[in-house]
Amino acid sequence: MTKERPHLGWVRFITILAGFMTVLAILSTWVDRQVFDTQEWGDTSLKLLQNPEIQKQVATYAVDELYANVDVQGELKKNLDDINSNLGDTLAGPLAGLGRQGADSLALRALSNDKVQSAWKSANIAAHTTLINIIEDKGKFTSTSNGQVELKLQPLIIEIADQVGLGDQARDKIPDSVGNVKIVDSDELAQVQTVAKLIHGLALVTALLALLLIVLAVYLSPGYRWLTLLWLSVGLILAALIVLIVRSVAGNVAIPELADPDIQPAAHAAWDIATELLKSVAWTVIWFAVALLVVAWVISPVKAAGKTREFLAVPFGQYPAPTFSLLGLLAFIFLIMGAGDGREFLIRFVVVLMAGAGFWFFRRQVMLEYPDADYSGLREFGDRTRDRAKEAWAGRPKNIPMPKIGGKGDGEGASDAPTATHARAEADTAVLPAQPAAPAAGESRLDQLEKLGRLKEAGVLDEEEFAAEKKRILESG
């Protein structure tokens, strides 16, 4: 007859809701950290520039802006005219074309330069800081002039111009408006601010709700909590897999629609780099679910899990102070790792509270289940196994010739086949089970039976072994 499971319908509903909240928590946490965390975006922007496909597109853009604003052919003609008046008209055009091809290669090489990459990262961090804080005209590379927030890449273009030998001309000829990438108009800042607040709130609320729903589901399932933890683990893993699938599909579907074919490789690379944090958050949820799976197995009615609980009952029951001190140290390290972000620290703090309550109730349960647990049962089991191995070794067939290693054996007249006596000894050894160790001297049958009962209760002996040992003790009396 199936045991009654109270609140089963509610537990299933809460489990599904926890999975849905987990999907929202993963997505909102990624958006919150990737889009609204300046340092995170600065690091991501640097990874973007270090990608070969993106480097190619940035180099093309920078050289296009350089040649659009610097009369390279005119500068060459002027220099050639100083040498010979006929050379300027003849060679300036072809040299300018060849210079453009060389400039593309040099610009691509320049983007691997630390100085250029630093200029790129600084521009992104400055623009991002302006966007998030809504501070007008802050930083060297950004401004809110002319009613919009801009990413100013003019310093990056000048750095590349230096690399291709046109730095002086670029500084003199390129106006301040060149290389400015509009991020958002000033009339859109209020909307951006509202969205930012919603993202901030959603990331924290959904993560806390998912954790609280897990606690509620476990609380409402007395008698089958291990099964609830199993369901929750599967739900969390499915939620994380859904996010990973959406990440892959969205990139493959959206990029061909939004990007021209010649820049799609760079767009794919940018998507993969920008969503790397999303992948990391999803895998964090998967590892959390695996931890819940381990807990579900430990508290399950499986026989092996029972032996594990008996083993853990010793440190939790006999040495609670050092055990909980060690767990407290691990919890402290876990909290310190998230101290840089207030929201992450709060989420980690809730996880620590959940784990602490779980360990406390686990200790209470194992102490009720194994009040006198110690490692004597394991020692006796080990001694019994060792004694049986010794008896099996002592009862092995004697005088079996050792294998020969080339040439003749060491003994004269040694037979290559075992005798009939040896064969009977082998048969007896194969049929008769190894006998347990003899009882200690002066130990009564009652003492032996009590010890046998404790071994059975501890799970060291099963029913068949218990009955056989009990029969042997009674017959030996």
Indicate the topology.
Elements: H1 8-36, H2 38-49, H3 52-69, H4 72-83, H5 85-110, H6 114-133, E1 142-143, E2 148-152, H7 154-163, H8 167-173, E3 180-185, H9 189-219, H10 225-258, H11 264-274, H12 276-298, H13 303-318, H14 320-336, H15 342-369, H16 376-394, H17 420-431, H18 445-457, H19 463-476
Antiparallel strand pairs: 1-2, 2-3
**Using DSSP, what is the number of strands?**
3
Shape: elongated
Helix content: over 70%
Largest sheet data: 3 strands, antiparallel
Sheet/helix structural class: mainly alpha
Question: What share of the residues does DSSP label as strand, in percent?
Answer: under 5%
| Average residue-wise pLDDT | 74
**Count of domain modules:** 3
Are there runs of 5+ residues with pLDDT below 50, and where? 79-98, 135-147, 405-437
Order of helices and strands: HHHHHHEEHHEHHHHHHHHHHH
Strand order of the largest sheet: 1-2-3
Q: CA-to-CA gap between the ends?
A: 43 Å
- The value of Rg in angstroms is 38 Å
Number of helices: 19
Task: Describe, in plain words, how this protein is organized in 3D.
With 477 residues, the chain is an all-alpha fold. The chain has 3 domains: 8-13 and 198-369, no CATH class; 36-191, no CATH class; 377-397 and 421-476, no CATH class. The chain is built from 19 helices and 3 strands. The protein has a 3-stranded antiparallel beta sheet. The two termini are 43 Å apart. Residues 79-98, 135-147 and 405-437 have low confidence and may be disordered.
